[in-house]
Structure formats: structure tokens, C-alpha cells
């Protein structure tokens, strides 16, 4: 059965989730990436949209803007790792419950997710038209002066996903675990190539 | 034809070309992606690849950019010295980018340094980025257009080593770049490796490497072998699509080289995501043109 989180998301709603689980989201999500994090954490500005128990989406959409309304063309996750140095403070300041992005995040975010009961999920990178089709409407836009990719777009979504839980509220970090597995195989994968290029410096 | 008239043709055709190139993958990349899907066995990887192909189908059917990060526009140009309208090329490409930003539409990604303002039309200081190679003979203008998204720019790097470090340093550098950084850049990747003598020439060569058509290889047998070995080695790491466990982190590894200084070995690594939006188009001296990146597609 599909696991669907609905906003506002409470701490108890994510309690049973673990890394590797697949979930969907219904309700409201707000885009925010490098500049939104910098404003909230480094410049001390309050997010115009109250993110308490909410969802932040590391994403910058393509929106066709007109006087008649904003049409969402494409939207998809961006590399979450760019926000790693700011995410823990962002979670603490905003009370955000679900972070959606692409790729892994680091130990500081994982620690904050455990402490403040939040999760990080990954959406499918590059699948921007499919994702846009799961957005029912753009409800609002804040901080537009940051530019189209960087501002806060407030989106109403229905069963947005699939999302893979990559950091849970219990200290689990899927990408960190996987990276350790990949790293453990590196020497063995490199070895035959190092052997093969051993004589490459020899003059032909 | 005057310079102005040639520029108008170039602007019009390139705007339409960009509008296609942001919405579908070139034929060679699409075919390679199909082969990568066939190599994956896990349920998770199949779900990811199904999402990839479903999205590509929707993007083309709905006429929308397949990935929201349409990047900054890079044009790698090979121009015969006898092409008569060289002066028209840069302004025409700038205008084509600005127009395609509105008509495709592309995401507004371009921010000038120091003002920190988004320019709104994807032109800016030295942007779009043009790289010219002037060929001593010929009258054709060959343009390779590439949408440089942030996710695959982020892991890019270059370093200069000492000869005592040998080719082994190159191998380790490529592995580190892919296994530690590029797994976030939407694998399966095209990995470009540039071998040169200093930091920027290695970096430029790494870019040329991943722009090369798939199915081509380095001209020297040892270079070609290094490409095959690196591909097999990287694909042994256990990384699949989206950086999650799987069989194929790379679609291809391409190596490009220049001569090196006797005292340095420089390596650059640039990766491109699976939505490798790169298209070739050629203009002749009468401004007739042809493209074969998207067979059967009219602009």
C-alpha cells in the first residue's frame, strides 16, 4: 500500500519511516534552495511561508509567468548536498519536517533530522515533466527577486513521488551507507587499471 | 548574403534547435540509456529507469524541457577559416539563447557576478559561453550546443600532478571524482577526462571529451584502452542510476588529450548527467544547414 504523507506533517507521522522506504506527499510543498537557505540561516530573515511541520523542496522550477497566472512547465530536485552547510540550522529555525531533494546529505543534516524529528527524501532527478504533472497548482510565490530558480514557489501537490527516504529521524543515512559500500570496492576496481597503466610512462 | 542576413538565419535556426535540444535526448544518448537499463537487474533500478523513459516521453509529447535545469548554454564551435559570416555568430547565438529562454521556455539560470542579479534571459557576462576552434580549411560552421546544468557542473575538477605520480594518478583522480562526488549528478554519466599540461587546458579537454559523439574512441590505442578500462572499473563500484546501488554509473568514459609539458601531468574530470542535452548542427557557407543528432525531427 502506498504510504502518503499529508501536510502538515507531525513528528509522529514520520516516526515509523526508515531509510529506503518509498513515500508520496499530498498537500503543500515550498521550493527553496541555496538562496532561501542563505537568507534564513545567514541573513536571519524569516521564511515568508511558515515552514513549521511543512515541506521544503530543493528545486527550481521552470514557470511560464503571465498576468493570468503562473503555469508550471518543469520541476525537479536539485543536488541537496549544496545545502549541507546550512540545512541543520535551517531545520532548527523553521521547524520544517520533510526535506525533498536529490542525492545524499551529510552528517550534520542527519544529526539535525534525528534531533528535531525530520526526514530527507530524494525525488527522481531529471524527471521534471512527470513531476510537474503531479503539481495541481502554484499557489503563491515569495522572494521573486532571487530569480526564478531560487525563490519560494508554493505548490499544491497530490501524491507527489515516489520519494525515497534517504535520512530518517533515527539517525539513518542511506547515501552515507551506500557511499561506504562503494568506497570499499574502489581499490579492487582500480587495481587492474593501475596495473595496466604501469608502463604507460615508458617511451614508445 | 550580408552579415546581417546570415545572422538572422543563424538566430532563427538556433532558437528552434535549442527548443528541440532541451526537450529530447540526442539519438546516440537515448540508445545508450536503453542499453544501460537492460544491464540493471534490481527492482529499484528498473523503477528509476522506467521513470526516466516515462519522463522523456512526456517531455517530447508535451513540448517541455525534460529536465528543469536547462543550464547555461555552451557552444563549442568548429569553424572553417573560409566560413564567410564569423562576425555574425556570437551576436546571433546570444539572441537565440535569449529568445529560446522565452519560447522553449528555458529556466532563467544566469546570474552576473557582483550585481548578483539574475539577468532573466540567460545571457550575461561572457554567457552564453563560446569556445572557438578555427579550422585552417573549409567553409562550414559546426556548432555543438550543450545545456550545462548545475548538478553535473558541481563535481567538475582539475589538478596538476608530477610525472613521478604517473598515469596511476589519473586513474585515482577519476575514481575519486566519480565515486565521491559525481554519484549525485544523476548517473548514468558520461565521464569526460582531459589530459593536458596545466589546469585549464586539462579542464577544456575534459569538456570536449564528454561532448564527443558516443561510439567514438581516443585515437591512440592506449588512450582507447584507458577509456574502456575506466568504464569497466567505474561500473564495478556498484553505483547505479541516481547514485543508488546498481550496475551502471557511467554510460561512457571519453578521454581527450593534448601534449604535456615534460614536467607535468594534468587531469580534468567533467561529467554529464543522463539527460545529456548536447546537439550538433552544421551550417554551410550559403547558410543552408543540417543536423543529425535528432533523426527525423524537423525544427
Description:
The complex is a heterodimer of chains A (204) and B (299). Chain A has 204 residues and is of the alpha/beta class. Chain A has one domain (3-173): fumarase, CATH 3.20.130. Chain A contains six helices and nine strands. In chain A, strand 2 (22-31), helix 2 and strand 3 (55-57) form a beta-alpha-beta unit. The termini of chain A are far apart. Chain B has two domains: 3-23 and 66-149 and 277-291, 2-Layer Sandwich (Dihydrodipicolinate Reductase, domain 2), CATH 3.30.360; 151-272, 2-Layer Sandwich (60s Ribosomal Protein L30, Chain: A). Helices cover 39% and strands 21% of the residues of chain B. Chain B has helices spanning 3-21, 27-39, 43-62, 86-103, 150-153, 166-181, 199-211, 221-234, and strands spanning 72-80, 129-135, 141-148, 157-161, 189-196, 250-257, 265-272, 278-283, 289-291. In chain B, the strands form two sheets. Chain B has a five-stranded mixed β-sheet. Chain B has a four-stranded mixed β-sheet with strand order 4-7-5-6. In chain B, strand 1, helix 4 and strand 2 (129-135) form a beta-alpha-beta unit. The mean pLDDT of chain B is 97. At the A-B interface, helix 5 and helix 6 of A face helix 3, helix 6 and helix 8 of B.
Brief summary:
The complex is a heterodimer of chains A (204) and B (299). Helix content of chain A is 30%, strand content 29%.
Secondary-structure element order of chain B, N to C:
HHHEHEEHEHEHHEEEE
Ends distance of chain B = 22 Å
- In the sheet with the most strands of chain B, the strands line up as 2-1-3-8-9
User: What kind of sheet is the major sheet of chain B?
Assistant: 5 strands, mixed
Number of helices of chain B: 8
Q: According to CATH, what is the class of the largest domain in chain B?
A: Alpha Beta
Could you tell me the CATH topology label of chain A.
fumarase
Strand order of the largest sheet of chain A: 2-3-6-7-9
Amino acid at each position: 500500500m502506498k504510504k502518503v504523507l499529508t501536510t502538515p506533517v507531525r513528528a509522529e507521522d514520520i516516526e515509523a519511516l526508515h531509510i529506503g522506504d518509498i513515500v508520496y506527499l499530498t498537500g503543500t510543498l515550498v521550493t527553496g534552495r541555496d538562496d532561501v537557505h542563505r537568507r534564513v540561516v545567514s541573513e536571519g530573515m524569516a521564511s515568508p511561508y511558515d515552514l513549521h511541520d511543512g515541506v521544503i523542496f530543493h528545486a527550481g522550477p521552470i514557470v511560464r509567468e503571465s498576468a493570468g497566472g503562473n503555469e508550471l512547465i518543469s520541476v525537479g530536485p536539485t543536488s541537496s548536498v549544496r545545502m549541507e552547510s546550512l540545512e541543520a540550522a535551517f531545520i532548527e529555525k523553521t521547524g520544517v519536517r520533510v526535506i525533498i531533494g536529490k542525492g545524499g546529505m551529510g552528517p550534520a543534516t542527519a544529526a539535525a533530522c534525528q534531533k528535531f524529528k525530520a526526514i530527507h527524501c530524494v525525488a527522481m532527478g531529471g524527471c521534471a515533466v512527470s513531476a510537474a504533472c503531479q503539481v495541481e497548482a502554484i499557489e503563491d510565490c515569495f522572494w521573486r527577486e532571487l530569480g526564478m530558480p531560487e525563490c519560494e514557489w508554493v505548490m499544491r501537490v497530490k501524491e507527489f513521488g515516489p520519494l525515497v527516504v534517504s535520512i530518517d529521524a533515527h539517525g539513518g543515512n542511506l547515501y552515507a551507507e551506500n557511499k561506504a559500500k562503494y568506497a570499499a570496492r574502489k581499490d579492487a576496481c582500480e587495481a587492474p587499471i593501475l596495473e595496466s597503466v604501469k608502463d604507460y610512462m615508458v617511451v614508445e | 548574403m550580408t552579415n546581417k542576413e546570415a545572422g538572422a538565419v543563424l538566430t532563427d535556426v538556433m532558437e528552434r534547435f535549442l527548443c528541440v535540444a532541451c526537450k529530447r535526448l540526442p539519438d546516440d544518448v537515448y540508445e545508450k540509456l536503453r542499453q544501460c537499463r537492460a544491464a540493471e537487474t534490481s527492482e529499484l533500478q528498473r523503477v528509476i529507469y522506467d521513470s526516466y523513459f516515462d519522463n522523456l516521453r512526456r517531455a517530447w509529447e508535451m513540448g517541455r524541457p525534460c529536465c528543469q535545469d536547462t543550464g547555461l548554454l555552451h557552444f563549442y564551435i568548429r569553424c572553417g577559416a573560409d566560413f564567410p559570416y564569423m562576425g555574425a555568430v556570437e551576436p546571433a547565438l546570444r539572441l537565440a539563447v535569449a529568445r529560446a529562454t522565452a519560447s522553449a521556455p528555458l529556466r532563467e539560470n544566469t546570474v552576473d557576478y557582483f550585481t548578483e542579479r539574475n539577468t532573466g534571459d540567460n545571457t550575461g557576462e561572457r554567457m552564453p559561453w563560446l569556445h572557438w576552434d578555427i579550422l585552417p580549411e573549409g567553409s562550414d560552421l559546426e556548432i555543438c550546443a550543450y545545456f550545462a546544468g548545475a548538478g553535473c557542473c558541481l563535481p567538475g575538477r582539475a589538478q596538476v600532478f608530477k610525472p613521478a605520480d604517473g598515469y596511476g594518478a589519473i586513474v585515482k583522480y577519476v575514481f575519486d571524482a566519480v565515486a565521491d562526488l559525481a554519484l549525485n549528478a544523476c548517473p548514468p554519466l558520461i565521464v569526460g577526462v582531459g589530459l593536458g599540461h596545466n589546469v585549464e587546458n586539462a579542464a577544456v579537454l575534459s569538456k570536449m571529451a564528454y561532448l564527443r559523439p558516443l561510439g567514438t574512441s581516443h585515437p591512440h590505442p592506449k588512450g582507447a584502452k584507458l577509456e574502456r578500462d575506466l568504464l569497466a572499473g567505474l561500473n564495478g563500484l556498484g553505483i547505479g542510476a541516481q547514485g543508488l546501488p546498481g550496475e551502471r554509473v557511467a554510460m561512457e568514459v571519453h578521454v581527450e588529450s593534448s601534449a604535456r609539458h615534460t614536467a607535468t601531468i594534468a587531469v580534468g574530470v567533467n561529467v554529464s548527467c543522463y539527460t545529456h542535452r548536447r546537439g550538433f548542427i552544421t551550417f554551410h557557407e550559403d547558410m543552408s544547414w543540417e543536423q543529425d543528432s535528432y533523426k527525423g525531427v524537423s525544427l
